[in-house]
Amino acid sequence: ISMFSFQFIQKTFAGNLLINSKSFNPVAVFRAVIADGTVDQEHTKEWDDMSVVRDSEFFNSPKMALKAIEREHEKVKSGADFPKYIQAIKKLGVEEFVTYVSDSHTQYFRNNGPQISSKAKYEPLVVAAVSHKKKFTKYLNMHQAGQTDYLSFCRHCAETGIDRWIVNLSLRTCTYYDQKSQLILTESIPNSEFPSGVPFAEPGL
Fold it and tell me: Scanning 11, 81, 103, 178, which has its CA 20 to 30 A from the CA of 44?
């Protein structure tokens, strides 16, 4: 009769310590299923929400964190999806992000890892040196009413001297600045829903 003994051993100052238990037993490997190498997205879509994954060093590496943010952004189809998007990236540790009008690259600031940045979304725009708040507000209202697309809005921002906008997820605000870092306009982000077409819905991913 052949017998196999599977043991988990932990080295200590006093020698080897057997740490097998009913819930931590290497014999469980015999119940494992060998996969064919493909991933069933339906069964793994919630894995990122597991604390053991979300808090891991690998998951919170800049590259993986940016991919996770991009995956959440891909789910945004309309203004109705933005609250879920904000909640999702907050779970990923994002506290604030800054989008630059010149090429729409975005910097994300997180509470659980280093700052990460996305790539440019379009060819560089020339941002006017002098800001025009009244004209910008008109363009912003048009965009929020769905009358312009994202690139058109960014061009209007550049035309009216808007250099960047900053979204604070805790304060739920979107603030616009000119090249001199002068505050041009601050908007509050509603808790329940976001106006359709707001610019921060499309950071430069």
Answer: 81
Quick: pLDDT tens for 34-91: 566 666 666 666 555 555 445 555 455 777 788 888 888 777 654 456 667 777 888 8
Read off the pTM: 0.62
| Backbone phi, psi, residue 164, to 5° | -165, 165
Classify residue 128 by its DSSP letter.
P
- Could you tell me whether strands 116-117 and 164-168 are parallel, antiparallel, or unpaired per DSSP bridges? unpaired
Q: What is the DSSP string of 14-72?
A: TEEEE---SSS-GGGGGG-----S---HHHHTTGGGSHHHHTSTTTTSHHHHHHHHHHH
Burial of 17 (0-12, 13-18, 19+ CB in 10 A): exposed
Superfamily of domain 62-201: YdfO-like (3.30.1810.10)
Element housing 80 (H / E): none
Three-state DSSP state, 129: coil
Separation of alpha carbons 111 and 76, rounded Å: 23
Domain spans of the chain, in order of start: 62-201
Q: Which amino acid is at 152?
A: S
Between CA 61 and CA 58 the distance in angstroms is 5
Start-end of H helices in 45-162: 51-54, 62-74, 82-91, 133-144, 150-159
